[in-house]
Design goal:
Two copies of one chain form a homodimer.
Chain A (H helix, E strand, L loop, with lengths): L1 H25 L6 H11 L6 H11 L9 H19 L8 E2 L2 E2 L1 H5 L1 H26 L4 H10 L4 H11 L6 H30 L4 H26 L5 H4 L5 H5 L1 H18 L7 H15 L3
Antiparallel strand pairs in A: 1-2
Chain lengths: ~290, ~290
């Protein structure tokens, strides 16, 4: 386990170093200063870079260099960042702090948090499109990416969370909305991250489906694990009495569901030969449900 | 002139009918209801559909069927719509009415106006990517589209308008910012609309450059004409004492600059043989500066 953990950490840190350097390069300081400053502030605020690491691992597991999909990896991180910036706004979750720092709107004003979020969202598509052009593959990956993070994906999940994500419903109704929210708001971005590298690499259907299953299960596990970690904390979900998995089903059921999903994620990787990337993804699925912060 | 006007109106109305029908088809009523309702409300609120008509005309002038680029035409309208929704927010222009109806945030709340805007922006890229896939062309058009409407395009223009777009500067500084704002906030979306059809049609460089020049000049003319029309009106720009062309350079200079730009736009079309589409675009350039509302 100690050895495995070291391998995991070195794989992860090699991936995040690449991502970090590329993000710095594509987000320089420039005019309009207020916009670039706001984008940089949120992108460089100690994110764990799990999603871009998934993109790189998903490419490597099908035999493609991480460097070939690096811009797509940065793109998913920009999407993740913009979604946090908009979610934190007073009109939505009204959070003043994230990762111990003032949120974008506290630092730059609501106007800049909205516009810098819009700019990051747009830039993400520019980066994926440039990556697609460089690899001379079809635009299908861009469509899938858009679907994962749009009205029937991440944004839809956020809308349902805002409109139907509070407590006080029957258990059946709560469970229905909770599934929708977890799948769309959280899991679909993680799913597309896991499969985007393979899509860009034009991997075969079996491989793409395996990464898709892996990402979806890991993404659902991630959200339940997050809910469990938030229990008892003065978190935003708690503050707004949001629906969470442990609230609806109880802590013990939540824990076993997260475990089950992590196992499902790992099982999906069975179509791939054993490799450093497969091991990384397996360890990551366990890490997601076992982490303590 | 009467005949010309009739030709213009029938070309325009044929284009907008196609766009209108397609927008209805791609934005049905569905779950999440609150999100689709908010998207539909703003997309179907009497927009003139100038930008999508440009996409269709730009395709036809290079010999491609309007129908082949219809989704890309809808995409530019979704971008235009999302930008208005976000600009109208209390954190930005704080407008309660647009085209005689309550703005999105007045009707659905700030949260929905933000999220439905995000959804339209994302959906625009899904539509352009789908269109690119169907035509089996490269993703370069998607990158150009993203650049036109992102941090160094429309969003950047909006940021500079918010941060530096108020009166009380030296004339030289005001002129500098005004150029940036008009070019980025308004003209670049009109420019990409004019050239997007030709990009998707893989037209030659000369044709694409001509449409690019046309769109940029027409777009700049459009913004100056808008500023002239707003003079004396209780408009949002007036209310917030925003920089406008007539404020900085005087009404008469504004009028002749708009005229000059419309002529420049028409001149760029000289590379194309005379056709219904060329005549439409020529008339549109004149219409932009001569309209009275």
């Amino acid at each position: 386990m100690a050895k495995k953990k070291t391998d995991f950490e070195s794989y992860f840190s090699a991936a995040t170093s690449m991502v970090e350097a590329r993000l710095r390069a594509i987000l320089p300081r420039r005019f309009p200063k207020e916009l670039y400053d706001a984008m940089r502030y949120s992108v460089f605020s100690d994110g764990k870079r799990v999603r871009p690491a998934l993109v790189l691992a998903g490419a490597r597991i099908v035999g493609v260099n991480a460097r070939d999909v690096l811009d797509a990896a940065c793109a998913v991180e920009l999407i993740h960042t913009y979604s946090l910036m908009h979610d934190d706004l007073p009109a939505l979750d009204n959070d003043d702090f994230r990762r111990g720092k003032p949120t974008s709107h506290k630092k730059f004003g609501d106007d800049m948090a909205i516009l810098a979020g819009d700019a990051l969202l747009t830039y993400a598509f520019e980066l994926v499109a440039d990556n697609v052009s460089r690899l001379s593959v079809g635009a299908g990956a861009i469509s899938e990416f858009a679907r994962a993070v749009g009205k029937d994906g991440m944004v839809g999940g956020q809308v349902v969370d805002v409109k139907h994500g509070s407590l006080g419903k029957s258990k059946a109704r709560a469970a229905h909305y909770l599934d929708y929210i977890h799948l769309n708001k959280t899991a679909k971005l993680i799913e597309i991250s896991a499969k985007l590298g393979a899509l860009l690499a034009q991997a075969n259907k079996k491989q793409i489906n395996a990464l898709s299953k892996y990402g979806r299960a890991a993404g659902l596990a991630f959200q339940i694990a997050d809910d469990i970690l938030d229990e008892g904390h003065e978190s935003s979900d708690f503050k707004n009495s949001r629906l969470t998995y442990p609230e609806v089903f109880g802590s013990s059921a939540a824990r076993s569901r997260a475990r089950e999903l992590a196992d499902e994620a790992k099982k999906a990787l069975g179509v791939f030969q054993l490799s450093a990337s497969r091991k990384f993804l397996e360890y990551l699925a366990d890490f997601i449900v076992e982490r303590r912060k």
